[in-house]
Specification:
Strand order of the largest sheet of chain B: 6-7-8-3-9-10-12-11
CATH class of one domain in chain A: Mainly Alpha
Shape of chain B: globular
Helix content of chain B: 25-40%
Number of helices of chain A: 13
CATH architecture of one domain in chain A: Orthogonal Bundle
Largest interface: A-B, 21 and 31 residues
Helix content of chain A: over 70%
Largest sheet of chain B: 8 strands, mixed
Number of strands of chain B: 12
Order of helices and strands of chain A: HHHHHHHHHHHHH
Distance between the termini of chain B: 34 Å
Oligomer: heterodimer
Chain lengths: 298, 340
């Protein structure tokens, strides 16, 4: 037991700088109420997604035609839809789908974009030309239209929709990262790194890219909401997630028909989308300040 | 005597190919640095001092290109080495400290991480741990490097090294940053330490401390120094030999005392006369008339002749060669080369 305690203290000591940094981050978040609101909403969203089976009172897929079109009540807080499914349960389960979409699309776009943009910016010349012209090509289409076309071509389904959105999303990161790399390439510390004999890969991945991450992370957290919104739009148009999946966009689509008489069917999933996008935007704005190492210790 | 020479630069030529034309930034630079010697390179802004330094590391950036001459370091020509071999020399054998420590330190890495990088790049630490009879593990390696970094920080007399190692560059003062830069440079005990205007950005008191530190380190490590500056005071304080540069060429090269006691080249004389002296009463500061020439279209013959008070006919036509007129006093001027 005592040995274990010793180990724990050692561990605590080793991670002391990290803990200190983390505390400081918490302090910075607390100082800006809007960021705090974003973080709270976002945490709620993630917790909902993780504990969906525990939170949802009903099975999101189980139809119960006897209880169709119930308005919000204590039994069904968000009411029921045309099949008598509990909307609250479906919205809760939908959080899982949205979380998956956001994480997958943003990480794919971020990885592809960062690597390609980094290489284009660092090496320049022909490589830069080729990569950036491909990027321009993709950006030339309105992203919604391109995602629509791709998703339709790949066939309806959530995975195809995510793939289609990723393909339309990476060029933004490539551009952003390339711009950052272009200016950082001339920075003194890059020259200093070359002077101590660091290799190109090392300079790019250890010195340049980490320095360009500030705006990238901010962009990613803003995009998190946008990708969810786009996926919902695809679902709404019928080429994203397919029924009976409790996807928010799809739910709005089914609720659309009854919107005037039974507004709760479309409203609650819409509200969920709104809150997640809002949270992601608030966090994105706040992160811009928090992640900047030069503004941290002010 | 010959083996004593650490670095010998001969007739180095560097061109920059720009839109407006070819800039002959270095036009035949020649000098030598002996082991353990402090060598100074002085000259006006834009005369090619920093280009000389980056040429030695072979880091002249694109439009620029080394077009001729040789750089012999420890008996080997650096211009013939592969990029891979050069990387081993940079940082390990030849290290450089730059002017502005803020931009030359990476803002997202701690001081410790940056110094550790140099050490890990060039030293086989796992072998060293094995030698001490212990089994190398990741944790051991980490501790080992940390100890080394703290040692290096102690060597540059960094206050509170155990704390500084985990700090970021923006948390340090200017003098401390420059100490960190020096720590990075000496972490592999280089044979040649280049200081490229290393104290220009610091205030005078800190400058003094840093120069003292560099002097001590030179004694301790036995490394040669190449001090690039435009401050004659630093040269007088620090250097054994000096080369005076003007518009991409070396115009005078001698021991420091000789240059100060008996400057021969008109440019050197002008430089020394431009230093204001407290002891003498003088209404206006003396200066060399004119400015440094445009290197795309440099003056014919001696590049200094349009500003030279003693210019002759031949100066306009023929470029003077760097010749030894007294033992170890080299000069490139027609006044002394039998031109008169």
């Amino acid at each position: 037991m005592r040995r274990l305690e010793g180990r724990f203290e050692e561990l605590l000591k080793e991670y002391h700088p990290f803990i200190k940094e983390f505390r400081h981050t918490l302090y910075l978040i607390r100082k800006s109420p809007l960021t705090l609101l974003g973080v709270i909403l976002f945490t709620l969203f993630i917790l909902t997604a993780i504990f969906a089976p525990l939170i949802a009172p009903y099975d999101p897929y189980k139809a119960n035609l006897k209880e169709a079109f119930q308005p919000p009540s204590w039994r069904h807080p968000f009411g029921t839809d045309e099949m008598g499914r509990d909307i609250f349960s479906r919205v809760v389960w939908g959080a899982r789908i949205s979380l998956r979409v956001g994480i997958t699309v943003v990480s794919i776009a971020l990885c592809i974009g960062t690597i390609l943009g980094g290489i284009a910016g660092y090496f320049g010349g022909l490589i830069d030309e080729v990569i950036m012209r491909v990027t321009d090509l993709v950006l030339a289409f309105p992203s919604m239209v391109l995602a629509l076309a791709l998703a339709a071509a790949l066939g309806p389904g959530l995975n195809n929709a995510m793939l289609a959105i990723s393909v339309t999303w990476w060029p933004w990161y490539a551009r952003l990262v390339r711009g950052q790399v272009l200016s950082l390439r001339e920075a003194g510390f890059v020259e200093a790194a070359r002077c101590i004999g660091a290799s190109s890969a090392r300079i790019l991945f250890r010195h340049i890219l980490p320095n360009s991450f500030g705006p990238v992370i901010v962009n990613a957290s803003l995009d998190f909401g946008w990708t969810i919104l786009t996926a919902a739009a695809l679902g709404f148009l019928g080429i994203g997630a397919q029924p009976p999946k409790p996807e928010w966009g799809l739910m709005i689509n089914t609720g659309r028909v009854y919107f005037l008489e039974k507004p709760w069917i479309a409203t609650f999933p819409g509200l969920a989308i709104f809150l997640v996008v809002l949270a992601s935007n608030l966090i994105g704005d706040g992160l811009g300040e928090i992640l900047n190492p030069r503004l941290r210790r002010r | 005597m010959k083996e004593d020479i650490l670095l010998s630069v001969r007739d180095l030529r560097v061109n920059f190919y720009t839109y407006e034309g070819v800039v002959k930034a270095l036009d035949g630079v020649t000098f030598q640095i002996r082991r353990g010697e402090a060598f100074g390179l002085v000259g006006e802004t834009g005369c090619g001092k920093s280009v000389t330094a980056s040429s030695i590391l072979r880091l002249v950036d694109k439009p620029g290109k080394i077009v001729g001459g040789e750089i012999i370091f420890e008996g080997e020509n650096l211009l013939e080495k592969s990029e891979e071999e050069m990387r081993k020399i940079r940082g390990e054998k030849i290290a450089i400290v730059f002017q502005d420590p803020m931009t030359y330190l990476n803002p997202v890495l701690t001081i410790g991480e940056q110094i550790a990088e140099t050490i890990m790049e060039h030293q086989d630490l796992i072998k060293e741990i094995r030698k001490s009879g212990k089994k190398p593990s990741k944790k051991m390696l980490k501790e080992f490097v940390r100890r080394k970094v703290i040692d290096v920080l102690r060597m540059v007399r960094m206050p509170n090294p155990e704390m500084v190692i985990d700090q970021y560059p923006h948390e340090l003062s200017g003098g401390m940053r420059q100490r960190a830069m020096i720590a990075m440079a000496i972490s592999c005990r280089p044979k040649l330490l280049i200081l490229d205007e290393a104290t220009t950005f610091l205030d005078v008191t800190i400058q003094r401390q840093i120069l003292e530190l560099v002097k001590d380190l030179k004694e301790k490590l036995g490394c040669a120094l190449m001090i690039i500056t435009h401050d004659m005071g630093i040269i007088a304080e620090m250097c054994d030999t000096v080369a005076v540069m003007y518009a991409g060429t070396i115009v005078e090269y001698a021991e420091t005392e000789r240059i100060f006691d008996n400057p021969l080249h008109p440019y050197t004389r002008g430089l020394l006369e431009a230093i204001p002296l407290l002891s003498k009463e003088r209404k206006t500061l003396k200066h060399i008339p004119g400015t440094i020439p445009n290197l795309i279209n440099p003056p014919s013959g001696c590049r200094f002749h349009p500003r030279c008070p003693e210019a002759m006919k031949i100066c306009r036509i023929e470029k003077p060669k760097l010749t030894e007129i007294e033992p170890s006093h080299l000069i490139a001027c027609h006044l002394y080369n039998g031109g008169r």
